Amino acid sequence: MKLNNLDREIRLLCPTCGCTDFSHEEHNENDLVTCAQCERKMSKGDLINENSEVINEAKHEIASEAKKQIEAEMKKMLKNAFKGSKNIKIR
Ligand SMILES: [Zn+2]
Question: 3-29, pLDDT tens digit by residue?
Fold first, then answer.
């Protein structure tokens, strides 16, 4: 069974202004990011924590999309199984 692409791109939002653009300082041990709009500095971990709701939502979306695809696939398989039974002849 093959599922379609379930990848989701999650845009992390600045908790202060909702901006999605961040600049990263390279070689930064604390992994600090700076909001492009309000210049709030925070660690990547904090940013992910602040966006946990958005991330959870995306996870739910992926799960329900996978379920939909699996159900459609199961229906197809059942249909095929019944189709095949026509060819069974009992002597
Ligand atoms: Zn901001």
Answer: 888 888 889 999 999 999 999 877 666
